[in-house]
Specification:
Blueprint: H1 4-17, E1 23-28, H2 41-48, E2 51-53, E3 57-59, E4 62-69, E5 74-79, E6 84-89, E7 99-105, E8 111-116, E9 122-127, H3 154-163, H4 168-173, H5 183-193, H6 206-225, E10 267-271, E11 274-278
Antiparallel strand pairs: 1-7, 2-4, 3-4, 4-5, 5-9, 6-8, 7-8, 10-11
Helix pairs in contact: 1-6, 3-6, 5-6
The protein binds a DNA duplex (16 and 16 nucleotides) through residues 1-3, 32, 61, 79-83, 98, 116-121, 164-166, 170, 173, 175, 182-183, 231-232, 234, 272-275.
Amino acid sequence: MPELPEVEVVRRGLANWVAGRTVAGVDVLHPRAVRRQSAGAADFAARLTGTTFGAAQRRGKYLWVPLAGRGQGFSMIGHLGMSGQLLVQDPAVPDEKHLRVRLRFTDGGRELRFVDQRTFGGLAVEEAEDGDPEGTPVSIAHIARDPLDARFDDAVFVAALRARRTTVKRALLDQTLISGVGNIYADEALWRSRLHYDRPSATLTRPQAALLLANAREVMTAALAVGGTSFDSLYVNVNGESGYFSRDLDAYGREDEPCRRCGTAIRRAAWMNRSSYFCPRCQRVPRVRDGG
DNA sequence: ACGTTTTCCTGAGCGC
DNA sequence: TGCGCTCAGGAAAACG
């Protein structure tokens, strides 16, 4: 499942393979893949055709490519959802089963393909913030910066986390508070911080909140260094290759396996229609003292 | 206004 | 063999 490190790997692939190339044509094979485009698939194709791609950017799990030439002032935004892939593929390679969008280039070289089994992801051409050299799409203004962004403000995050009336894992997954963290890296950051997912965020001390942030940053940096986390063929880089971080996970997906700190069996709990993996010994919810 | 729940989607895996 | 069920989960809309 693509979270920050996986999306960053894809962003780098786009920067390497499609920057400076001009779009010759667009095939939308599934309208749901461009549902963010309010005027529809034909509008998506028309807005891209003839534009030149700039350097790919990323915020959290969103990525985008600023457009130049006749697309000036707009960006192509993408989100991989759960199973989205952006592949740079030789035109001779047969269509993937779940190919949703194809972009062909004027140089006749490798095309860009958006492949997505579950169709939670998508592409769109959107207006960029006025005068922003990075072409940040207006529609993601509400997404917080991510912890690998030089402009992420640690002190603001720590204060906001402690001000929230919610639980700590919900807060980690709230992209308006901190972006890029999904279920896998949330569980990993909590494990490293010895915090239970249902811990009320307002009960964290300032050092605990700072440690949680540092651990989230650290685990995502480590994952990025080895190409991200892959469990199956659903997450790959633009060349179709998997990452290797899954072997280094300490909590996620390790139900019944021994905690690498204390040996206690890792537990999986149903949580918000998904799963939370945690060590029942290292990560306890502090008992709420009753009234007295 | 804010926090919580629902909704979207498809394929793998499993019990019967 | 096939059917129905559960699970995977990001983010925005809908809800309270």
